[in-house]
Amino acid sequence: MKKKILYILFVLCIIQYAANAQSTNSAGSAASEKEFKQVIQNMFRAMQQADTNLLKTSFSDHVIIQTIVNKPEGAAINTESMNDFLQSVGKQTPNAIDERIEFGAIQIEPLMATVWTPYTFYFKGQYSHKGVNSFQLVKLKEGWKIQYLIDTRYK
Q1: Domain containing residue 129
Q2: Could you tell me which residue, 25 or 120, shows the higher pLDDT?
Q3: Residue 8: its pLDDT value, please?
Q4: Is there a contact between 94 and 50 (Cβ–Cβ < 8 Å)?
Q5: pLDDT at 9 over 50
Q6: Alpha-carbon distance values, 25 to 16, 28, 116, 141 (Å)
Q7: What pLDDT is stored for residue 30 in this prediction?
Q8: Quick one: what percent of the chain has pLDDT higher than 70?
Q9: By C-alpha distance, which of 87, 116, 88, 101 is closest to 44?
Q10: What is the CATH number of the domain that holds 42?
Q11: 145, 86, 135, 65 alpha-carbon torsion, rounded to 10°
C-alpha cells in the first residue's frame, strides 16, 4: 500500500512539474511571438516609409531573400541581394509601397521561428498582387532577425 501511495505522489509531482514547465514555456513563447512579430511589422513599416535604415534592422547579416515565380514550365526561384532590396525600397516615395499582411501559421522554438503571412500588395494606392510570405527568424544576441524570406506572387 505504501508503494502505491508513493507511486501516486511521484506521478502527481511529475504532472505538476510538466504543467509548470508548459505554462512557463507558453509565457516565454508569447513574449517571443510579440518580439518577432514586431520585427516583421517594422520591416513593412520601413518599406512603407521608404526607410532603408529601419529596414536593415529587421534582417540578419546573411539574410536570403527569394521569390517564387510561377512560369508556364513550372515554378522558378529568384534570389535578390539585400543591397538590391534596400535600393529598390529606397527609390520609393513614402506610402508608395503598402503590403498588408495577416499573421498566419507560427512555429516557435527558443532560437528560431517560422512565420507565414498571407498578404495583399498595393503600389501607389493601386492593387498590384497578392501572395504569401514565409519568414525564418533567428534569435541573435541583438534580438530576433529575419534570416530567410521567401514569397509567392499572384495577380
Answers
A1: 2-152
A2: 120
A3: 55
A4: yes
A5: no
A6: 14, 5, 21, 20
A7: 74
A8: 81
A9: 101
A10: 3.10.450.50
A11: -120
Burial status of residue 10 (CB atoms within 10 A of its CB: 0-12, 13-18, 19 or more): exposed
C-alpha cell at 138: 533567428
Contact yes or no for 28/113 (Cβ under 8 A): no
Residue with cell 511521484: 10
Count of the separate structural domains present in the chain: 1
- In tens, the pLDDT along 22-76 reads 433 444 677 789 999 999 999 999 999 999 999 999 999 999 999 999 999 999 9
Sign of CA pseudo-dihedral 60, 56, 80, 129: positive
Give CA–CA dist 97/119, Å, rounded. 13
Cell of 130: 497578392
Query: For 96, which DSSP code?
Result: S
- Give 38 or 1, the one with higher predicted confidence: 38
Cell triple for residue 5? Answer: 501511495
* Candidate from 11-20, 41-50, 81-90 with smallest mean pLDDT: 11-20
Longest CA span, the chain: 78
C-alpha cell at 122: 498595393
